[in-house]
Protein 1
Amino acid sequence: MKLKNSRQILLATVLLPLSGIGQDMRKDSIPEVMVHANRLQIPFSKDNRNVEILTAEDIRRLPIKTLNEALTFLNGVDIRQRGPFGSQADMSIDGGSFEQTLLLVNGVKVADPQTAHHNLNLPIPLEAIERIEVLRGAAARIYGMNALTGAINIITKTAKQSSIHAHLYGGSSFKDREEEEKDGIYYHAGAQIGATLFQEKHQHQFYYNKEQSNGQRYNTASENDKLHYQGQWDINSDNKIEWLGSYMHNRFGANGFYAAPGDKESEEIVETVFASISSTHQLSDKLSITPRLSNRYNEDDYRYFKHDLSRARSLHYNNALSMELNSRYQTGFGDFGLGWESRLERINSSNLGDHERNNHGAYAEFRTESIRRLTLNAGAYLNYNSQYGWQLYPGVDMGYALHPNWKVVFNAGSSQRIPSFTDLYINQRPGNIGNPDLRPEEAWQLEGAIKFQRQNLTAHAGYFHRTIDNFIDYVRDNADEPYQPFNLGQNLVNGINTNINYHFTENHTTYHINLGYNYLDPSIKTPEGVDSKYNLRSLKHQAKLLLSASQDTWRISVANRWNQRMSRKAYFLTDIRLSYAFSDINIYADVQNIFDVTYIESAAIPMPGRWFSMGVRYNWLKK
């Protein structure tokens, strides 16, 4: 009873001002954000897909400090952390596996060909992010391979004035660490510095971040360093060049991460380098082109026995070089988008061996608003993979305006997921072995939804059905055998998703409310008598309620999440932030998991209970 009353009091504290909405309410207009597709840029209000956007302002309101934490507040996105604050985490969308979701930075793929376990090894700080776009559903015709259940696109900021930035933060549960009471309490701390230089023709941004934690359990300490730099040169009004470079070094104890209970003394060291350069050229009033070159290099050193490197050590070195050319041609009856990409993947591994493969794809899209009240997007992605040959993935989106504020949308599309090098070649007996005969997963998804948008209110409610053929799952006949991946037939998912975003201002205070709910009904045709590694771990219910109130100098935010997985009990989490700003300084205090809930996101690793942290930000802007 006491816990229930505490929750009611906490929520009432934020919601009480809503009861006094009067005639002086100001309806702020929602910015017309352009969804960052690579060829046809579409305003958010005119997009016919299930797209959710988390803006920089949304991120500032949340009680978070990392990208992983930000993603947990996006509808349909499932983040499964093996350890908080920079340790390994997986992401998926709408019940898919972590290998079926594509991650991008400014439209550039950052997918790791070794394993998607490394996709979130991103050194991009929250301060450098303009927004995060989540496109749900089969997205091959927009982003190409491995966007089977959707894509997450991180859009970075463009420097608009010179500045200096610093951020110090730290926190603790004020409890002794599990299994090591004599070693004191569990803590986490970090520091970040950054600077931007703005000139009329060129702009630059630089960030360095250092984080460290002693680990909530035995052998789960972590330490990571992140560097991020990006720049832009505006040659003239029709031509510009953009570039980006980042580096991350992440070292963490991996007790229970992959092969519990035998991996109690394991450790992993991951180094990632990511770079891209692109240019945009407006060749005429109708035609523009954007060539792009990017490269992602990753080193993974997994030590099953960290005190004895002579045995059970796996060293992986992989590289993915991508070349792209995207174009847009505008006509009186619609816009055409054409593109081409090549991706060259290589791996040198003490465990997986030496392998390489190439992927080449061509895009074609068409969009028109020439039919009254109807918007139409159609296209296809033609793919050639050196391992699997030719594949074609078409898709179509339609939207019909019932009213200036109401729109119904329908989309249908296909996509694929190419097996990772780990799926094909891993050799970690008695834990896991690969299967070089795997075929790509292929999906079809149908979705219908109704959307509402009016100045300070947006709402979405939809239903989707997805069928995945050649679904890949790791299975075994009994506990004495290793897990091995097989194409097990069909994976069917039916889902319902809703989201409401509302904001208003009254009496010099701005209020934001974001409410979302996601329901999934998955089924997998698994042969009888086999033990599956992944098929019962997706979310069945997912709900969020984000509340905030702010004035010029102070802000309070409450973030609530309720999750239930297919094979685990439900859990409810509440985080709160109180912040105060004066001059160039912002001070904040967070309480995460305020009701000290015990829960698990991945494997058998318990996540931290109640957690207290404080931080201070300094941000100097050149006038």
Protein 2
Amino acid sequence: MLDSAGSSSNVEIRSHLVAGLREVLDQGHASARELLKRPRHGLVCAQYLSGVMDGVVCCLHVAATEHFYPALNPSQSERIAVVAVGGYGRGTLAPGSDVDLLFLFPHKQGAWGESVVEAMLYPLWDLKLKVGHSVRSIDDCVREARADMTIRTALLEARFVAGDPLLFHDMVRRFGAEVVEGTAPAFTEAKLQERETRVRRAGTSRYLVEPNVKDGKGGLRDLNTLFWIAKYAYRVNDVRELVAAGLFDRKELLMFQRSEEFLWRVRCWLHFITGRAEERLSFDLQRQVATAIGYAGRSGQAPVERFMKAYFLVAKDVGDLTAIVCAALEARQQKPRASLSRLLGSFSKRKRVRALGHPDFTLKSQRLNVIDPEAFRRDPVNLLRLYEIASRDDLAIHPDASRLVTQSLRLVTPQLRNSPDANRIFLEILTARRSPEAVLRRMNESGLLGKFVPDFGRVVAMMQFNMYHHYTVDEHLIRAIGVLAEIDAGVLESEHPLANEIMPTITNRRALYVALLLHDIAKGRIEDHSIAGAKIARKLGPRLGLTEGQTETAAWLVEHHLDMSTVAQSRDLGDPKTIESFAATVQTLERLKLLLVLTVADIKAVGPGVWNGWKGQLLRTLYYETEIVLAGGHSVIERKARVEKKQDALKELLSDWGPAERDAYLARHYPPYWIKTDLARQEKHARFLRRAEQEGRTTATLVETDQFRGVTELTILAPDHPRLLAIVTGACAAAGGNIVDAQIFTTTDGLVLDTISVSRAFDLDDDELRRAERIAAAIERALKGEIKIADLVAQRRAPPQRGQTFQVAPEVIIDNVLSARHTVLEIAGLDRPGLLYDLTTAIGKLNLNIASAHIATFGEKAVDVFYVTDLTNAKIVSTARQLTIRRALLDVFGPDAEKAHATKAKAAARA
């Protein structure tokens, strides 16, 4: 250590040295930030920071070797080279990056070397820098690089900073001769495997809406990997040399440089804004980075959405470059073909290769390729045929062919778009029973899909700035087609049994596929995307070869693609008016089938965990109730018959009860209970109520888990009173229970039988049941007045945040048309812990009875619907009373909520 090797003045000198270097670093960061504000200076910023760090390291080397530990007559062992490795070795540093150093010696480190290394490291640590360091001899470097690919990669980009340059050059020479020579295939395989693992960990899609700029798919690490592999295989030191080497053309070199510049710009801003090495471009940071870079809103898109579209387009370019490098390496036989399959995604191997059926295509390395570079120019329809043959014959497309497609996009002219042959082929690809998702994704990655369908091109890489959608719009649409193909193939029946059952009976299959591809194609426009999308479907349908009827069906599906999901999740399915209104919209059984399948595919493609059995059950209930009406049944008559049928079925299950007891129990429930509750739950309720009655209890709870629906049910029995639901929701909020639905039934003898469904918190039933029982106990205590719910909810609330990431203008709709017996309150706004409790409390204070509640959450947006009456069980028709209700509910969202609501209403009126 320094202070043990010299006088006390050394400690003082080191203190002054650290203070001076701190000032250098602070000034360097300030200057780098100013550089970053200039256009196209992201990489310049990173290089400048690396240069500042070089100055710090050189200064410390001089201090250590010339002041603290000078070697007056240096021996062979008293030589040192300070080498930058890793990202620092590339000559780039982000503001919060680690500083990776190699202290290189000719032989084993001696006492002098140890002292010098410590004299350099301690000031770096005092400067609060994150330093990764290693101490090795040249022999160590060669030996360890042979055994460890991580060390080999770090040394590949080693850069001399200070000390003995001859020592460094000797290491570089031996590294090339003894490590790199003849090992390019093994290195390439290892790097691609490492990339695959890294991408899987960070998120497999490059279109995840909160991407990792460094390690995500299409991020900086992918560009690094490309250059490592190219440098190793082609023995180049600068990316510009890859043009002369034949790996890139000049356009692709510019793409590499443009991508690198953009990603460095984003990464540096992330570090500066957060003050740390933050690599994830989270929602709360996206706005700030977009503002820092200077994006503005345009054509209905917010600045942050335009910025993120630019980001995803760059990520797509990085993917294209990855394919180009891998194809070139395979051609040079520098990498095994198996890795290319993993990297690019291939179809399963074929037992035999069938004839391709067209003279312009051939197989190369068991991948589909064109016969020569003029194939697309000779016949532009071949651009589509390439993907048709790949789909038909289950073939992977050779990267050379994909690259040529991208280079030939200018051939996609209006003449090609209107070609009957080209459109027939596209429709075959879209509706193919084999892997349409994979083929469409290849078309999208090459740029062909957006060129052939320009409206699709407008949503390529478009993100929606909310927590609900996990992918960009184009990725969501392609994934939805994949889900539809799964349903079409009859797989995953357990997840969506009704959709799988009715899919074979659908006669308008082509219209369904077209509608699903187009259902969100008008996102990002000022006009409502469902209406604008229907116009696109009417324009595109005839071009694709749909009949007039098929086109109209596709357009109707696009215009109404949200209806079934909205009704199922936010309307009372036991209310006859709900079913009659929905049936009037749908009109035919065929449309009902089509809309059900489309809705399942749409929800499931939103992202992992969005689809669950609970939503499936709601959709099935709506489907079956509507089917009766559309099939010619009269809803009132049919309901009466179904109530009697269900009561008879329950009587059989309660055969151990006496006839009088059974009849008395059946009379305790109103008709909506029998319609909305399945037989198994009816029996559980009956035995639950009987047991509570035998025990002399008017307040009781029952908990059970439902793996299929992904929820835990809490059934509550209690005397009816207006604030009952507020107490229940408050107890759930205080215990951390996220309510996803509430079924409320009142018995004829004045009790309430509420079933509250909360989302699961644990995978294991035992853990989940213990949690549910704690919530149930809190509910019982609250209903008995033993605890004060308001206090518990207040303790649970998070403190208000300034400048929240998401803003959702609150909205309260009061409707007397949706139900024959109830006023419907639809309340939408920014979700938060305790919101449902606050709403039900406000409704209770307004002296309203809640007949049913329907809770839906779409990311950060909550949409809660309550069917209510006044205390005389009448609808709320007074305009003054409705105004009072609206104000009270808007107040739940804060003092500015009413103003925001009015602004939104005016904007909607203008639209």
